[in-house]
Amino acid sequence: FTKSHLAQWMTTRRKPTPFPINLSVPVHTELSPNPRGVALIITPWNVPIQMVLNPLIDALAAGNVVVIKMSERSLASTQLFTQLLTSGEYIDQN
What we know:
- This protein is of the alpha+beta class.
- It is about 35% helix and about 15% strand.
- The strands form 2 sheets. A two-stranded antiparallel sheet has the order 1-2. The protein has a two-stranded parallel ribbon with strand order 3-4.
- The radius of gyration is 19 Å and the shape is elongated.
- The protein has helices at about 1-10, 50-60, 75-85, and strands at about 15, 30, 40, 65-70.
């Protein structure tokens, strides 16, 4: 869903402009999506993968940097997720 709608979400859109102060100057308003910065995702121990993937996809699609803090109680899930993310197969390392 995210991949198919990303181009639409990232386009610059025109929005209604509030009443201008100077009527002789043409005014228009544009909404341009920009990344906000760094997103921190902290996961619980009982559903670590599901609670990481949804916000991870949304944050990466928005252009943000993501820091993931997995639970210390879910070692196998943490190792699997680390292996998948650092392999370069799913996320480009550049």
